[in-house]
């Protein structure tokens, strides 16, 4: 499998013969998660699902930044504690991402639970004279890491000439960044240098190395984290270990709205709670996977509607497959169908093997949907074909993290009886009674699909935006 590495700007081979270790920068828990967070995390969820489907286990670490100026400021505004703010939004995070059918990470380390690890990390950097103590905190000396800028392709001298005068005049260089900030405002911890809290970047270095080792496989996040966050992580981590930090740097493109970055000042942030309530998990996942992960994608109702139409076709496909045996009396194995389905399945895998091209992978998925629905419309979808197609269909569904709403056996028996009653009424030309049954089925979100040789039914996902 090949993944585009931001650092080398080339596609790198991912070794899938052993456990793949992934660190994904998570959210700062001071507010609700939004569609931009969703895209990054869904892309990595699909990567993990694909690897494990192919037999490669993953060690997947995703942190929570639960100590930060934004958290403290919000706590002060709401006259509560930073701990309560972070706990609230961590709980909301899990509610949102469980709702999006995102598999939980192997571990979700929090900055506040790793203060000792962070302090030990900083100690070593000071001992190496790569970090220094000032009146306001402990800083990393960027000049001591000559490769600074190699991820973002920025040069130190250009950054220095373009930098503004810093508020903190105690720094030796405007580019130096905080490892530890002195403060008496809670939350704060005692350190060898003074009471305070860690800087933003140091937590990810300390926790990723603690859980995954010094040279793990993939470090990921949104493209907005390349500079300064990931650039600073590389500088402090490689100074600490004197070896390569992550093998591959994988960055997901931003979600824009009308071509603009989401921001509170513009009032255009789309929270996960909002999009889930209106569109449901499948449409949101399809939207997030509709373009190549590394490129920006623009949020629009039009694109969501396009994915809704496609999803309705995927639902129809599933029910055509499970009902095939109920309405086809003859069975005939068709070799050409087998070849078509195998090619689609191969195209799906090739797309994901080639730098996680979810755009082509979802196209392959919808090709199997189209082919199945064509066979059903032509009344030639036989059980043997349906069973083979269903295996490939459900595999793709699982990897993409999509889910058809389930129906219980009791509900199935009830619906089947209602449909038989409706067909009997139609034979007896009691069309009013037949229409009443259809209306009742519609209320149950059950849609009838009439074929020449019988009627099948499907359970539609209830999507608020469609109502």
Q: Could you explain how this protein is built, in words?
A:
- This protein has helices at residues 35-53, 69-77, 82-99, 115-127, 156-162, 200-212, 226-241, 272-288, 301-327, 335-353, 358-377, 383-400, 409-427, 431-443; strands at 2-5, 10-13, 20-24, 58-62, 131-133, 137-140, 177-182, 196-198, 216-222, 246-252, 255-257, 260-261, 297-299, 446-451, 454-459.
- The chain has 467 residues and is of the alpha/beta class.
- The protein folds into 3 domains: 2-298, 3-Layer(aba) Sandwich (Rossmann fold), CATH 3.40.50.620; 301-400, Four Helix Bundle (Hemerythrin (Met), subunit A) (Up-down Bundle), CATH 1.20.120.640; 409-466, no CATH class.
- The chain has a 4-stranded parallel sheet, sandwiched between helices. A 4-stranded antiparallel sheet has the order 5-6-7-8. Strands 12-11-13 form a 3-stranded mixed sheet.
- The radius of gyration is 27 Å and the shape is elongated.
- The two termini are 42 Å apart.
- The model has no long low-confidence stretch (mean pLDDT 92).
């Amino acid at each position: 499998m090949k993944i585009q590495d931001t650092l080398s700007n080339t596609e790198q081979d991912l070794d899938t013969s052993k456990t793949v270790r992934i660190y994904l920068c998570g959210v700062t828990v001071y507010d609700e998660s939004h569609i931009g967070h969703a895209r990054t995390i869904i892309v990595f969820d699909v990567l993990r699902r694909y690897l494990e489907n192919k037999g490669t286990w993953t060690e997947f670490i995703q942190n929570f930044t639960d100590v930060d100026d934004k958290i403290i400021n919000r706590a002060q505004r709401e006259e509560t504690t930073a701990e309560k703010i972070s706990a609230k939004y961590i709980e909301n995070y899990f509610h949102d991402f469980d709702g999006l059918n995102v598999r939980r990470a192997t571990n979700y380390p929090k900055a506040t639970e790793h203060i000792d690890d962070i302090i030990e990390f900083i100690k070593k950097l000071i001992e190496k004279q790569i970090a220094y103590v000032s009146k306001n905190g402990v800083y990393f000396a960027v000049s001591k890491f000559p490769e600074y800028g190699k991820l973002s392709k920025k040069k130190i001298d250009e950054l220095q000439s373009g930098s503004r005068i810093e508020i903190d005049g105690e720094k030796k260089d405007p580019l130096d960044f905080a490892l530890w900030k002195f403060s008496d405002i809670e939350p704060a911890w005692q350190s060898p240098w003074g009471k305070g809290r860690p800087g933003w970047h140091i937590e990810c270095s300390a926790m990723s190395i603690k859980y995954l080792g010094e040279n793990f496989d993939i470090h990921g996040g949104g493209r907005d984290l390349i500079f300064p966050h990931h650039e600073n992580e590389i500088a402090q981590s490689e100074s600490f270990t004197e070896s390569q930090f992550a093998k591959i740097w994988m960055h997901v493109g931003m979600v824009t709205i009308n071509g603009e970055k989401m921001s509170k000042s513009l009032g255009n942030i789309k929270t996960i709670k909002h999009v889930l309530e209106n569109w449901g998990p499948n449409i949101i996942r399809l939207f997030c996977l509709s373009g190549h992960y590394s490129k920006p994608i623009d949020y629009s109702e039009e694109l969501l509607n396009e994915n809704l139409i496609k999803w309705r076709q995927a639902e129809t496909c599933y029910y055509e497959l499970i009902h095939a045996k109920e309405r086809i009396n003859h069975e005939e194995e068709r070799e050409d169908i087998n070849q078509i389905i195998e090619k689609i399945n191969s195209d799906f895998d090739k797309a994901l093997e080639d730098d996680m091209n979810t755009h082509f992978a979802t196209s392959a998925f919808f090709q199997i949907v189209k082919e199945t629905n064509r066979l059903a419309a032509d009344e030639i979808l036989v059980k043997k074909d349906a069973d083979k197609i269903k295996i490939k269909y459900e595999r793709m569904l699982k990897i993409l993290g999509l889910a058809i709403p389930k129906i219980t056996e009791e509900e199935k028996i009830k619906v089947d009886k209602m449909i038989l009653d409706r067909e009997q009424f139609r034979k007896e030309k009691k069309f009013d009674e037949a229409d009443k049954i259809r209306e009742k089925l519609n209320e149950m979100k059950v849609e009838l699909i009439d074929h020449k040789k019988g009627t099948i039914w499907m359970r539609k996902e209830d999507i608020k935006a469609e109502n």
